[in-house]
Amino acid sequence: MSKNIKIALLGCGNWGKNIARNLSDMGYLFCVYDQNKNISEQFNQKYGLPNISIDEILQNKEINGVVIASSAITHKELAAKSLLNDKDVLIEKPFCLSLSDAKHLSKLSTKRKRILMAGHLLNYHNAFIKMKKIINDNVIGDVVNIRAHRLALGSIRSSESVTHDLAAHDISMILSITQSMPYEIQVQSIHHNNNEGPDAISVKMSFANKVTALINCDWMCPYKEHKFSVIGKTGGLIFSDTEDWPYKLVYNPSYINTDNTITSIPLKKVNIVPNEPLKSELEEFINCINSRQSPLTDHKEAINVQTVMEMIEEKLKTLGKS
Question: Does some domain include residue 75?
Fold first, then answer.
């Protein structure tokens, strides 16, 4: 990777701090900008960087790209301005808050011949990468069902729903495995707080070849659980991101027979090389700036994820009217 690449970070809240640290360690952080001037000054002083305005960032031809980690409602505008100023762009999830905004950015990046990448982080997690390899090696047979649980008592966003904040991760991973879009979606939800959209959703997605996926996302759950499981005809895999690395990915060779009896076989831990997914995601962005190749989670992948989120949101609106 070239050390000549210069990246500006737009937005430095809880997640942006981690991005700033990684980009600084990697030698690519040019500056940090946040709407809160005190935060901008604090981080630029911490890393010995110039404290400049958003307009100065956009007009600075030395800056190759931007990472957008500001509030979701600002993503479209910041990304569009960056693309129009010939910056490559990585947008942390959610990519956008509407499919129309996502399509606008996708078309703009194509027109300007710029890299446009979505921060669908878990695609860069070594446990998920290993999981996909095991699936592709046909160890668990044909995929039958995928289950995602993302539950916690977490930050309740005022301008976005739990669909955009949490489900985006799981939708991205599910589509990465199925390599297809769902033809039907069913949704249930609960809404108890003063925010935009539901606080918890349960989603069933139906795909071709009788593959189904179940998603449960909840930001008012009193316990934390981040689990992603794939069930095949001859076994299953469980990715538990809250576990320590030796236990993050488990292979269950047990399976259900045609007569509905179960062949039980002991669980097996899967060896994984630990990584920091965020660093791997940022490395992908830098590599693509250098190579001009399309990222794993490019704007086309982002459109697919956004399309499914829009299907969920539209279904929720229908339920609200019934």
Answer: yes
Specify whether 178 is located in the same domain as 214.
yes
Q: How would DSSP label each residue in 172-198?
A: HHHHHHH-S--SEEEEEEE--SSSSS-
| R_g of the chain, CA atoms, integer Å | 20
At 267, list the tokens.
């669980």
What is the pTM assigned to this prediction? Answer: 0.95
**Which range marks the domain in which residue 251 is found?**
126-274
**Residue written as tokens 């900008």?**
33
Q: Quote the number of domains for the chain.
A: 2
Check whether 195 has a pLDDT greater than 90: no
Q: What is the CATH number of the domain that holds 72?
A: 3.40.50.720
In a domain, 304, yes or no: no
Q: Tell me if 143 sits within 8 A of 211, measured CB to CB.
A: yes
| Residue 56 sits in the same domain as residue 134 | no
Spell out the residues 6+ positions from residue 311 whose beta carbon is closer than 8 angstroms to its own: 182, 185
270 and 153 in a single domain? The answer is yes
Question: What confidence tens digit (pLDDT) does each residue in 214-264 have?
Answer: 999 999 999 999 999 999 999 999 999 999 999 999 999 999 999 999 999
Q: Is residue 235 part of a domain?
A: yes
Q: Helices (H), strands (E): how many in the chain?
A: 10, 15
Band of the pLDDT at 156, cuts 50, 70, 90?
confident
| Max CA distance (Å), the chain | 68
- Residues 107, 164, single domain; the answer is no
pLDDT of 159: 73
DSSP string computed for 86-123: T-EEEEESSS-SSHHHHHHHHHHHHHHT--EEEE-GGG
Q: What's the CA gap between 146 and 227, in Å, rounded?
A: 11
